[in-house]
Design brief:
Belongs to the RGS7BP/RGS9BP family. By secondary structure, this protein is mainly α. It is built from six helices and no strands.
Amino acid sequence: MVKEECKALLDALNKVTACYRHMVLTIGGTSDSQNLREELKKTRQKAQELAVANRNKLTTVLKDKSVSKEDKAEFERLWVIFSTCLEILEIDMRRALELGHEFPLNVPKKHLIQTGMSGGTSGVAARAMSVQNMKYEAERNIDVVDLKDLENEINQVGEMMYEMEMKVNVPQWTVEAKQDPGAELKSTISVGASSIGMISVEENKSFCDISKVLAGIIFSAVLIIAIVLAVCVVKLS
């Protein structure tokens, strides 16, 4: 039961973190707006809430001496995934801070990042956080105030990562993966390659059939022309 809860929390954290990265890349672009900054704030706060829940669950389980060896190995694997996800979140938060300073909303200027994207991003954030409607009550200087909060939250995430290392020491190189690196990608590629191969074989077969027909037509035409020329030469002679 605890293992399923940890996996569910980790899956939710992965989705929200991926959503946050997607929106960070639009800062300074054509879809940047006050609503986007508010979405970024809500999304990263949701990610931090999930991170705290993940940390508490996994820390309690990994400190429990009664956990079996197999279960402990699985929880250590989840811990490594969680730590990596938290590092990615911190990197994206720092990126959002830098881009926020470079592209303040209260200073009108031309967008320097032409992403080719336009429109709102509330749908992405809502799907990631299972919220149907996100309403915004943003202040005019949301970007200025939020950058200060973001800087404090980055420090909090850094402190959380440090405390995690102090409480539970799980070196990444000691955790064994359940499958080979890139196994899912390889299986997907192999399936795609096999389907592409079947298509290419069928196309080659059809192409060969067409080429045989054309070759036969050309040969027949040449033969007819040769016969006609031979008849003409005999008549002239």
